[in-house]
TrEMBL record:
Keyword Mitochondrion part of the UniProt annotation: no
Protein's recorded name: Bifunctional protein FolD
Gene: folD
UniProt keyword ATP-binding, yes or no: no
Annotated ranges, domain Tetrahydrofolate dehydrogenase/cyclohydrolase catalytic: 8-121
Organism of origin: Kribbella ginsengisoli
Gene3D superfamilies for this protein: Leucine Dehydrogenase, chain A, domain 1 (3.40.50.10860), NAD(P)-binding Rossmann-like Domain (3.40.50.720)
């Protein structure tokens, strides 16, 4: 193996620790504890495990958590109603809808029920637009975590050619937008792209987010390329054939231990940011009302 590993575990731990310090400060100064609400529909074991992991990390960071578990037969209307309740609850600062949801649910409609100020997972159209236009808002957590990882390993982005394999609205598309905002030249591709391997060979940075185990092969890569594997498939296998790619790449993320920890860390960081912003907004509103009365 010639590639250097881009491990997210230590950096993510530092991010969570800093988020915890900010959460503690907010409690001490205002009495408000940041709270992340997780919504799980059905009893998929993997999804339930992810939710528990996020709740445990929240607790360690001093962030409160609220769990909403709905039956697998839940309708879109029922799920939207639950999310709207959380959006209106002043004690909840961030909302995470664990996906995928059961087939009968309109996932986009459910995402759009999340109030923009509580969209700490960066899944709404409002959040995507804000991110794409460089306006205030929360970034999609996995793409945002990828950018943090690239920055931590001093990967030069300006002028680099980045190839994103995948077009998910919460992974591939926002990853490309964030890279573009960092002055990289971005090519979007997917599983049906013609001559995909030839395109990938031109990349300085490869982001694999296609959802297929071992999809990207070692001979697809330019020697010395930076390879970000954002996939997670059964058996702890990413979207990149790790053994082959590690012989060619300059930097590569492992699965697990690469992108995954960064995703959760950014989710918690953005939950604290949401709590700070919402608390500040309430204080400003109260102050304005008092000024008006006087």
């Amino acid at each position: 193996m010639s590639a250097k590993l881009m491990v997210g575990t230590e950096l993510a731990a530092e991010m969570v620790a800093r988020a915890g310090e900010r959460a503690k400060k907010l409690v001490e100064e205002t009495g408000v504890q940041p709270c992340l609400a997780t919504v799980l529909v059905g009893d998929d074991p993997a999804s339930a495990t992810y939710v528990r992991m996020k709740q445990n990390r929240s607790k360690k960071a001093g962030i409160g958590s609220r769990s909403v578990v709905l039956p697998a037969a839940t309708t879109t209307e029922e799920l939207v109603a639950e999310i709207e309740k959380l959006s209106a609850d002043p004690a909840v600062h961030g909302i995470l809808l664990q996906h995928p949801v059961p087939a009968q649910i309109d996932e986009r409609a459910a995402f759009e029920a999340i109030a923009p100020g509580k969209d700490v997972d960066g899944v709404t159209m409002h959040g995507f637009a804000a991110m794409a236009f460089g306006e205030p808002g929360f970034v999609s957590c996995t793409p945002g975590g990828i950018l943090r990882l690239l920055q931590a390993y001093d990967v030069p982005l300006e002028g680099a050619h980045a190839v994103v394999i995948g077009r998910s609205p919460i992974l591939g598309k926002p990853a490309g937008m964030l890279l573009l905002a960092s002055n990289a030249t971005v090519t979007y591709t997917h599983s049906k792209t013609r001559d995909l391997a030839d395109i990938v060979r031109t990349a300085d940075i490869v982001v694999a987010a296609v959802g297929r185990a071992n999809f990207v092969r070692g001979d697809w890569l330019k020697p010395g390329a930076v390879v970000i594997d954002a996939g997670y498939n059964e058996g702890n296998v990413g979207d990149v054939h790790f053994e082959e790619a590690a012989e060619v790449a300059g930097l590569i993320t492992p699965v697990p231990g690469g992108v995954g920890p960064m995703t959760i860390a950014l989710l918690l960081e953005q939950t604290v940011e949401a709590a700070e912003a919402l608390t500040r907004a309430v204080s400003e509103t109260v102050a304005h009302q008092l000024d008006h009365l006087s």
